[in-house]
Amino acid sequence: MTRISEDQVRHVAHLARLAVTDEEVHTFTEQLDAIITFAEQLNELDTSNVLPTSHVLNMKNVLRKDESAPGLDREDVLKNAPDQQDGQIRVPSIIE
Amino acid sequence: MSIFDHKLKEIQSMIEKKEVSVPDLVDESFKRIAAVDGDVKAFITLDEENARKKAEVAQSSGKASILSGIPIGVKDNIVTKGIRTTAASQILHNFDPIYDATVVNKLREAGTITIGKLNMDEFAMGSSTENSSFQKTRNPWNLDHVPGGSSGGSAASVAAGEVPFSLGSDTGGSIRQPASFCGVVGMKPTYGRVSRFGLIAFASSLDQIGPITRNVEDNAHLLEAIVGVDPQDTTSANVPGEHFAASLTGDIKGLRIAVPKEYLGEGVTEEVKQSVLAALKVLEGLGATWEEVSLPHSKYGVATYYLLASSEASSNLARFDGIRYGYRAEGAENLIDLYKKTRAEGFGDEVKRRIMLGTFALSSGYYDAYYKKAQQVRTLIKKDFEDVLENYDVIIGPTTPTPAFKIGEIIDDPLTMYANDILTIPVNLAGVPGISVPCGFAENGLPLGLQIIGHHFDEKTVYRVAHAYEQATDFHKEKPEL
Questions:
Q1: B98 with A80: Cβ contact below 8 A
Q2: Where are the domains of chain A?
Q3: ipTM (interface predicted TM)
Q4: Model confidence at B413, in pLDDT bands (50, 70, 90)?
Q5: Is B75 part of the annotated catalytic residue set?
């Protein structure tokens, strides 16, 4: 029995914002199916009374003072932007 | 003999006696890189002009610490201001960081000189460095074999004598496994020991930066320089820094060692087992005792790890979208199309595979069955370690089930590749520290590694045991012929 279908793989690729070719869908379906089947060995374990790990150390509520501090310099931030105009990052139109 | 065959302490005393200068050390690095890196391919980016300038400055300004003036290589997922940082991915092929990682700041204060950036599996996803989008690094002991991964460049550069030490990062074994494959010393500190600020995140609950060196003493010095709580990383732990190097007494009388039977079981080759049993004899000779124990859930480590690490990665890597930095695809019709095309063109196959797995495990309807289940099993794995460590000082086993495999041998088989990390992954899941030290050679001449695992924040004991073992053996003195 397959755990994951090609349609599901297309859906997941959309959620992950990855363009995929038909060939990739085919390969990913096979590979993810094998990995998920492998992962299902965890079902051998009864975990009904086990708390999920949220942190490996006994650390909680790390707080700091709410003080303002200088942020990154605009010119520095824009240095790596692939497209920019008038001191701002430019993207394709968002509203149709 | 190279100057880098000496320990840090010795190199510093040679500098003091003016037998060698800081510019000489940097020159030695670049000469060695020019001679062997065409074969080894450990470096993605070199920073020669700056490094030579800094060497001149360091020479005239004098010593700041034991690390002053020492050349270092940095894994290319640790951001360095002014030196391109790619995580070995095309999506960051032109990324020029605007700040330094905390560890890089700390090393600058200590006086090290960054030579360049080291190759790795793309975004640290892999166990062979074959997933780099730039080049395949080769094992200095045998160029047909992988150096391990993901910190393959970090381990190979040290083994090849290009730099005396390097920084790597370890999410499921990415420091220890390549250290084992390349015959060098690699430490994954306790989770939270070293700030992750400026480490390009793969799986935030598992990632940890650590040192790779030729010997245990230097490793302890390097870790001392990079530990500490950091306001920029709220998962960094507020524990006192320690003088790890001062704890290397050579005395391990009365040490209680646990040897998990699972670590000498199925899948572990006979020669690996024999090397570990021989190492235990050496430790017994030094006054330690060992007993067989069980970490019953360790066989579930790989499955647990791939679900959790991939889930975290799918979230962490969402930031690479072609907007603020890095690669941006051409000809996109709208914003969503731009994201999809950029990511499809910018990421390699293994990264896409893990983003897909993680997105699936976190998606509506599957979260409880996969992600939450794996977090519950993580609790059981962590408890295995707590139970054993209640009665023992350290846990010892092999670092990897086999010596380094051949380039191309298992790259098309993800599950076999993942199984390589079966002995290192549980350590990350439990958050405890672990080191790999050279413990012999396989019949084919490739190095083998001994893994020593300790209590949370007890790197001191781990180092003490590793050092005592190293002093009693000669494996770390062997060097590859290049």
A1: yes
A2: 6-44
A3: 0.95
A4: confident
A5: yes
